[in-house]
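Subject — a protein and its fold

Tokens — whole-number codes for backbone shape
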Amino acid sequence: IGGSLVMIPALTFVYGRDQQLYQASAMVVNALVAATATRRHAIAGAIKRRVVVRMLPAAIACVLLGVWASNHLDQRWLQLVFGGFMLYVALQETRSMLAARGSSGVGGSPQDGRLALAGVGGVTGFVSGLLGIGGGGVAVPLLRGMCRLPLREAIAASAAVMLVSAAVGAIVKNATFPTID
């Protein structure tokens, strides 16, 4: 799971309710974490350019849409959506842990079609912008399940896409988030 799923609730616990501020802060951290991860994956030769290029436009457009939606949601609704997403992640992680799968992919040959990768990029970008998370917890399972990418390629592509989309999202979120009175 990503650090934002820990960071945002921890900030809320320590400093009180200001979901918008904590998401804006987390998005900056996400971009920085993605920068170091992308560098490491690039050095290792794990990033497949065609995957990133096909995901990135939708991820950028949808992170902007997600930020806009987040800025227009009432704080309580935003917290409920975030909590619901955390429950979803917990259930997915539990299911994954209980399943006896290898780490080489879901099976079959990789599918790197434009539509599937754009869809993964779009969903990842929207959820990232809406919740202030990096998106790896969304992108990696989708890339493995829908596109049948090997785990290493899915993680590397997720980091590279997150580097750009999180930076864009962080800039826009920090410039536009509503404050609590």
The helical segments are 4-15, 19-43, 49-72, 75-98, 114-131, 136-145, 151-176. The mean pLDDT is 85. The radius of gyration is 16 Å.
